[in-house]
C-alpha cells in the first residue's frame, strides 16, 4: 500500500537516549504489512538518530527526523514536535523502547479511519530476557469497545491510533502520566471506539526507564496531584462533565494503588510497577 495522506499513519517516536532501542522500534514498522506510514523520530537529547539506523541497514524515505531543540524536554514536548511534523491522516505514538507487533497497523488503521480512533490490547514484556509479564486483557476479557470509564479502569499504558483531526496536543506540564491524560482526551472527543483484543502493542519493561526507576512511585504521586489540580481548574480540556468526574475518581484509585506499589517495592516484592501488577496485589 503506497503512503497516502488520506490513509497513512504518522508514527511519532520520542527519542531520548534511545540509540540502543531505536532500531528495534523502527524495524517493527518495517515489518508491518500496512506500508502507508511515516515514522517521525523526535530527538530529545540533541543527537542524530540517522547514523544509528543506517548502521543497522535502515535508510527508508518514510523516516522523518526532527527534534525538540532541547535536551530532556520530556516525552510530551517531543511528541508535540513530532505532531507538528506529521503529515498523514492518522497519528500513533510509539515509545522508542517498545515495538509494534506484525499486523498492528493493518488491524487498527482502518478502524481508526472509520471511527476516529481505536485501541488494542497490550503485551508487557521484560526487556532483558523477552519474558512475558502480563497482557492488559486476558483471553476473552477484552471488551469490543472502549470508552473513557473503561480506559480509566486499566493499569497498563495504552497507545491508540487516532485520526489527526481528533488528536489533542500532549500537555507538557503533565510529565509522568501524560499518556493517561492524552487517552482520556481522545476518548472525550471520539466517544466509545473499537478495541482490538489481540495484543499488537508490545510494551517493554526496561531497566533505566522512567517506570522502572526507584522514584517512579514518587513521580506518579506528584503527577496525580497535579492532574487533580488541573481537573479542578481547567478540566484538562475534557468537555464531558461525567468523564471529568470519573477521571477524578480514577486518580484517587490510582493513588491508592500507587501507595500499595510503594509498599511492595520497599519490601522487595517487585522491582517496578508492572511487576507489582503481575503480583495481583493492585
From TrEMBL:
SUPFAM superfamilies reported for this sequence: Nucleotide-diphospho-sugar transferases
Keyword Transferase annotated: yes
Lineage top rank: taxon: Bacteria
UniProt GO molecular function: transferase activity
Domain Glycosyltransferase 2-like: 10-128
CDD domains: Glyco_tranf_GTA_type
Stated name of the protein: Glycosyltransferase family 2 protein
Organism for this UniProt entry: Azospirillum humicireducens
Taxonomic placement: Bacteria, Pseudomonadati, Pseudomonadota, Alphaproteobacteria, Rhodospirillales
